[in-house]
Amino acid sequence: MRDTTYIKEFQQYLTEEKNASNNTISSYIRDINQFISYLGTKNISSNIRDIVKNDVERYLEWLNKNGKSPATISRTVASLKCYYGFLIITTRVKSNPLLNIETVKTVKKLPQILTSREVELFLEQPECNDMKGYRDKAMLELLYATGIRVSELIALEIDDVNLSTGLIYCRSSDKERMIPLYPAAIKAIGDYINLVRHQMLAHPSETALFVNMSGERMSRQGFWKIIKHYQEKAHIDKEITPHTLRHSFAAHLLENGADLRSLQEMLGHADISSTQVYTQLVKKQLKDVYNKAHPRA
Fold first, then answer.
1. E strand map for the chain
2. What's the CATH number for 116-293?
3. Contact present, 89 and 12 (Cβ < 8 Å)
4. In sequence order, which residues have a C-beta less than 8 Å from that of residue 248 and are 6 or more positions away?
5. Would you state the pLDDT for residue 2?
6. Which residues pair with 178 in a beta bridge?
7. pTM of this prediction?
8. Per-domain residue ranges of the chain
9. On the CB side of 261, how many CA atoms lie within 13 Å of its CA?
10. Which of 59-63, 89-93, 150-154, 189-193 has the largest mean confidence?
């Protein structure tokens, strides 16, 4: 079990055969090494052929007692199952001790959203009395108008905005989608582009739509700070992240009659099941309102 050659071969298998992402590979390898370390501390046989279901179950119990989340334990099971599957394929072992171990069920938390009033309050915070204010106003309005991801926001080019048609062109991987803008967002973006953007650029050839105060493309960290600044300024108690506005965009559209397929297209979800989460969120919001407002609830 401690033979690092097996793990190196497994890593190669994940890369070449499974085409796994770097994040998945690093997580799997880390989980396996932690299991090996546990076996050593508990004086359990390090021979992979000797590991049985009971050894694995005790390890999962140990993880639970040490405060690991259901999601972490579930991923650990997946990592070890995959590793033992590889060992069987390569004839290192004959059976998988995780075969009949069920993945821990995780409870998915519904995303937090802002109320319409909180969104209004938040978007009111940037003051258009300097270049930063114009830029920040445009960024926040665009994010709530379109529900795009922060990575997509900072990747926008100046040519991705068509103010005359009220559309932005958002590219993600090899896909492109068009998303409409509401009038206030069109105005905020237009004011930023026409009044201040050219003054902010470090180089006239810069193609990024949004730039930092040094005149270069805005970073994720820079935009995160902007969000935090205006959350504090608005005195909103909820934790606001760039994704909070994406979630709020989706939930508010559904509340006002948008259909799931259109919302899926705007959000850029490959699978509609990702979009259906917002249906549950809207139902929960309605139930909460009912329980608070109905005199007999």
1. 161-162, 167-172, 175-180
2. 1.10.443.10
3. no
4. 113, 114, 119, 144
5. 47
6. 169
7. 0.63
8. 4-89, 116-293
9. 0
10. 189-193
